[in-house]
Amino acid sequence: MNTVYLKKGMRVTHVDETFACSGTVVDVVDLNSAMVLWDATDEGGSNEPDLVLKSDLNIRGGKMNARQQTWVDDLRSGRYVQGKSTLRQHDGVKNVDLDCCLGVACVRAKEHGIVKSITLSSDRVADSTNFQYYFFTSVDPMASEDDDHGGYLPHDVVAWLGLKDEKGTFHKHLADFSALTEESGIEGERYLSLIDWIAAATLDLASLNDANFNFLQIAQFIEDNAHLLFTEESMQHD
Questions:
Q1: Which of 3, 41, 84, 172 ranks highest by number of CB atoms within 10 Å?
Q2: pTM for this prediction
């Protein structure tokens, strides 16, 4: 199956067994169901369309850029141990760093000088373990203290990755959840079963991480739903 990449302003003609329609792409809504909105009143004049959409095409909104792909590769690498509820924490008993999926992005951003990390120690009286919690913050000395984050991405990392917001938010009705359906575990299955009952129209990667979906599942989810997670400007287009 051939893969095509759409972007706003592209002149397209859609052809299937029953009809043909031409226009200019206004928005890419649901790529998994090939729901592409275009202005049917603008047929692009007499020029040939940039693309003819057919049923045998695998439609995507754009390729992930190098930084985005590196983040996905990091999640698949096996180098990181998954944690919950915070970007990064150090388990003093097991002597291991625990990262959520967004924390993995922060670690990579730190290596590139985008952010720095500060630590806050906390004695856990209940189980007598000592955890260190990492906060990631801008390297800019003039940055606001509001950009110190332990749970969600700092603004500098959001911009560096090209995500639409600090939590990896996506529209739940447009997302392809197939990457999460296998080997989800009890907590993951419960989360998937409740998606339609959640009042909010959006979900986020942070909640997927804390619902016990593993890094391999989340990496595939990011690839499958890149058009919902990343800004159009940050993605590569053929």
A1: 172
A2: 0.71
